Amino acid sequence: MSSGTRIVLLGRQGAGKGTQCLRLSRHYVVPHISTGDMLRAAVREDSALGRSVEKTIGGGGLVSDELIIEVVRGRLNKADTQQRGYILDGFPRTVVQAEALDLIAQDLPLLGAVDLVVPRDLVLNRLSVRRVCRDCGANYTVTGVVRSPWSCDTCGGDVVLRDDDTPDAINRRLDLYESQTAPLISFYGGTQRLHEVDGVGSQDEVFDRITEVIDRAGGGS
Ligand code: AMP
């Protein structure tokens, strides 16, 4: 079995992070930690956390650094992460979060940040046809008439249009990505932990590119 890994996947919404993270998580036998999935689950459960973030998520805004850092701190303290590592998806999204991650993960330091590079016009197209399983987060693409109801092939959950995959919210999220998240590229570049990967191509091609850089960075093997 692989020795696990500890990485962050960066990239615009719709760059394919979710799909690749699920595959990477199976390949390296490491938990896939998606802060978006965690927050959406909290909203579904109608927990205090869910109620406090529901509006922000639906509008395509970012929840506060303080809150999301506490969510990730709790998750990284769990036994599976401590033993195998982590593949973080959707976190960090700001430099404040990246600095906090370095502190939280002092004993399990990040091996690298993989930036999945896909141009904005391409992700806009992809997001407009994206549908997501409400339960397991699997992504689907609408190729013709939208199936209704649509059940997930993996878990049988409802496959739906995300509340924040509307044109307004998509544009807001992409703008926020440029302003808040793109500085992370300099943050990780400045500490020699950045690996840029071309995210255009088949899922297999992109997966091979990502595993190559992770293995070179010392994760897996
Ligand atoms: P995602 O599935 O990663 O696109 O996340 C969906 C939504 O959850 C985002 O648009 C934000 O509202 C919220 N969210 C997820 N991760 C973070 C984060 N690291 N910082 C702030 N907000 C986040």
Layout of secondary structure:
Blueprint: E1 5-10, H1 17-28, E2 32-34, H2 35-45, H3 48-59, H4 65-76, H5 79-84, E3 85-89, H6 95-104, E4 112-117, H7 120-128, E5 130-133, E6 139-141, E7 159-160, H8 167-181, H9 183-190, E8 194-198, H10 203-217
Parallel strand pairs: 1-3, 1-4, 2-3, 4-8
Antiparallel strand pairs: 5-6, 5-7
Helix pairs in contact: 1-10, 2-3, 4-6, 7-8
The chain binds adenosine monophosphate.
Adenosine monophosphate is lined by residues 13, 35-36, 39, 56-57, 60-63, 68, 90-91, 93, 97, 164, 173.
Structure description:
- There is one protein chain.
- It contains ten helices and eight strands.
- The protein has one domain: P-loop containing nucleotide triphosphate hydrolases (Rossmann fold, 3-Layer(aba) Sandwich), CATH 3.40.50.
- The protein has 221 residues and is α/β, with parallel strands linked by helices.
Short description, anyone?
With 221 residues, this protein is of the alpha/beta class. 50% of the residues lie in helices and 15% in strands.
CATH class: Alpha Beta
Largest sheet: 5 strands, parallel
The helicity comes to: 40-55%
CATH level 4 superfamily? P-loop containing nucleotide triphosphate hydrolases
When the domains are counted, the total is 1
Strand tally, please?
8
Radius of gyration: 17 Å
| Ligands | adenosine monophosphate
Instruction: Please work out how many helical segments DSSP would assign.
Output: 10
Overall morphology: globular
Q: What is the ordering of alpha helices and beta strands?
A: EHEHHHHEHEHEEEHHEH
**N- and C-termini, Cα separation:** 8 Å
Overall pLDDT level: 92
Q: What's the arrangement of strands in the largest beta sheet?
A: 2-3-1-4-8
Low-confidence stretches: none
Query: What is the percentage of strand-forming residues?
Result: 15-25%
